[in-house]
Design brief:
Blueprint (H helix, E strand, L loop, with lengths): L2 H11 L3 H43 L2 E5 L8 H9 L4 E15 L4 E9 L1 H7 L6 E4 L4 E5 L2 E9 H7 L6 E6 L12 E11 L4 H6 E5 H7 L8 E6 L5 H11 L4 E5 H4 L1 H39 L1 H9 L4 H37 L6 H4 L10 H27 L3 H6 L1
Parallel strand pairs: 3-9, 6-8
Antiparallel strand pairs: 1-10, 1-11, 2-3, 2-7, 2-10, 4-8, 5-6, 6-9, 7-8
Helix pairs in contact: 1-12, 2-10, 2-12, 2-14, 10-14, 12-14
């Protein structure tokens, strides 16, 4: 251990009461700054990860749409072609339209998605989201006929006042010529399953029916409105999109999840950056406390600095003593801040202490996902700020004249 480090450690625990209290207040400031930045960053990581997983559980990784609102008529060949591509684990066609729905007590406008149950099972997570009932469109038989089944979100079920086995009626004017006095097509279904994705918008406005029933209800013929794909790595979506587009002869609109949900994830990224910068001001305030603490320490230790210089200590050594103390404050503050942030994140994930209104934030609580890189960046920036803050008083201490000190 160098003598500069030894003296810095002695100075850390010595001094007048006010200087000691100021040192610990500075450490607390650095600790709170680091803990807040790390916790806020981890909160946004968890929020983004949770939203991403739930959104991709309903829309998958790459979606293929027809140009100009037409239909995909050769979807069977398209699905077979896409399933042979590298990194593609599943492909599913679907129909996606708005319709009116009514129960015996209420009515509403919703989004209806017609799916192939087997293919959708491998592409999306709707089967895992079933909270009541079964993942099936078979509602049994009545009078020898098979009754059509429907899967609906728990928010929609609550709003319509229905549960498993209750009847629902869908109304659609899609494909009709409204000028000829057309009437809406009507289809009756029974609720076979209720799902909960955790996304308020989906659970409150989404219903699934079989693909053939949707083709009949919306008069699409043997066609679909879109196809979505699941990859073995979600972050390959942007890289594979132009290759798939070229392979399909640029006949379709191929959209990766990063573009399909661009507005949402851009908002999350901007909010994360803004809050991190804002809470970093706490560390800057602590940096000013470091300056004041070390300046007071310099004034208190003037005689000792003069003695060190008479023994041959050079100005660089005096600077190191005070810089080491500033870095010691940073070290204690950073480690303590990391520990507090990790403990708070563990408590939040386990007991869900902070809740959110699901109709605004899509999810009901704040999930925490800690990344080591975020912690290292927060700690590194704090060390740099504390180092720069310690340079000013250390330079002042190094410039003290032995003669002036002895005269006093």
């Amino acid at each position: 251990m160098s003598f500069e480090t030894f003296i810095a450690r002695r100075y850390f625990g010595s001094g007048r009461f006010f200087v000691s209290v100021s040192t610990w207040i500075t450490i607390i400031g650095v600790t709170l700054g680091v803990a807040t930045v790390c916790f806020v960053t981890s909160m946004h990581n968890g929020f983004e990860s949770e939203i991403r997983s739930r959104l991709l559980g309903t829309s998958s990784h790459i979606s293929i749409f027809p140009f100009r609102g037409s239909y995909i008529t050769d979807y069977r060949e398209l699905v077979s072609e896409l399933e042979r591509l590298d990194h593609v684990t599943a492909v599913s066609p679907f129909i996606f339209y708005k319709a009116a729905i009514s129960s015996s007590s209420a009515g509403d406008g919703i989004i209806v998605r017609g799916i192939d149950l087997e293919k959708e099972r491998n592409t999306a997570s709707i089967e895992q989201d079933i909270k009541a009932g079964v993942y099936s469109f078979n509602a049994g038989t009545q009078g020898g006929d098979t009754v059509r089944g429907m899967l609906i979100g728990d928010g929609l079920a609550e709003r319509l006042g229905v549960y498993l086995g209750d009847p629902l009626v869908l109304y659609s004017l899609q494909g009709e010529d409204l000028r000829s006095g057309a009437r809406p097509r009507v289809a009756k279904f029974l609720v076979t399953g209720i799902f909960e994705t955790g996304l308020y918008e989906f659970d409150g406005s989404m219903a699934y029916i079989s693909l053939p029933e949707a083709q009949d209800l919306f008069k699409t013929g043997d066609a679909v409105t879109a196809v979505h794909m699941k990859l073995d790595d979600i972050y390959l979506a942007e890289k594979l999109t132009p290759r798939i587009d070229s392979l399909l002869g640029f006949r379709y609109d191929v959209v990766p999840w990063t573009i399909l949900h661009k507005n949402l994830f851009s908002w999350i990224a901007i909010e994360k950056l803004a809050l991190s910068i804002g809470f970093s001001l706490i560390v800057l305030v602590a940096a000013f406390s470091i300056i004041s603490t070390l300046v007071m320490l310099t004034m208190e230790k003037r005689s000792e600095i003069g003695i060190l210089k008479t023994f041959g200590a050079v100005p660089a050594s005096i600077r190191k003593i005070f810089v080491y103390k500033g870095l010691t404050i940073a070290t204690v503050g950073v480690v303590s801040g990391w520990a507090i942030s990790l403990a708070a994140g563990f408590a939040q994930n386990r007991w869900k202490l902070v809740s959110l209104p699901p109709d605004i934030y899509f999810i009901s609580y704040v999930p925490i996902e800690s990344h080591i890189l975020d912690y290292l960046v927060a700690g590194g920036v704090t060390f740099v700020i504390c180092f720069l803050a310690a340079l000013i008083p250390s330079q002042q201490a190094a410039r003290l004249s032995v003669i002036d000190v002895l005269r006093q």
